[in-house]
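subagent[fold] <- orchestrator: predict structure for attached chain, return tokens only, no commentary.
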Amino acid sequence: QVQLVESGGGLVQAGDSLRLSCAASGRTFSSYAMGWFRQAPGKEREFVAAVSFSGDSTDYADSVKGRFTISRDNAKKTVNLQMNSLKPEDTAVYYCAAQLWTLYSGNYYRKDKYVYWGQGTQVTVSS
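subagent[fold] -> orchestrator:
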């Protein structure tokens, strides 16, 4: 089992940067691909970024490509999301999630394929 705790959210202005972190507990962290999702008020939870269990592969939603960078450190059991050039439309609760590594290919963007979720961290971008 994997427990996930996000941190790093906050209130920033458009154009600023934020770095979200997700700390995992459990001995099998490296067996999971990791993803970040977000949910804005009144909207469905959507895919943001994902990284394979090894860190060799990353994928992004078109809306954040070129602005956000996902990374992981298996030794520290952490996954980070560096968010640059933030926009008001990036405002949402951001969730970290874990997916069995065998499912990553073709399923990295599917929230129903992630088995463990954090509690979320709020990111608010003012214009």
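orchestrator: received. Logging for downstream: The radius of gyration is 13 Å. Residues 15 and 85 are 4 Å apart (CA to CA).
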